[in-house]
Amino acid sequence: MASSPKPYSLQLAERIHNTTGKDRLGRICVLGIILESLWHSVVERKLLKTSAPVVRKALFKAAIFWPGVYVVTGAAVKWAELRVRKAEEIELETRRASQETHWD
pLDDT: is 3 or 69 the higher one? Predict the structure, then answer.
């Protein structure tokens, strides 16, 4: 019996579920906002002589972007974990059912 291909949502969930660094998501986002803030405040402001209002606007955008990345990525990771767990449970139930009918 040939197995049917996995649905795209399960393939995507497995990719997200197996992603390296998902346990360090908080640190990644905090470092992202720190590095972007340093870039805007040091490099753009002092070296490139960018005006203060432009730098403030860029810092404000970074302050919105990085927490958004954390929330959206965290939600995607939780969804993937639930989707993969559900698929594993369904596969386990299917195996049990086929073993029970095989022995009957």
Answer: 69
Q: Provide the pLDDT for residue 5.
A: 82
Cα–Cα dist 49/70, whole Å: 31
Is the Cβ–Cβ distance between 8 and 75 less than 8 Å? Answer: no
pTM of the predicted protein model: 0.74
Q: What is the DSSP letter of 104?
A: -
* Element housing 82 (H / E): helix 52-103
> Cα dist. 100→52, 94, 95, 97 in Å?
72, 10, 9, 5
Q: Are 66 and 36 in contact (CB under 8 A)?
A: yes
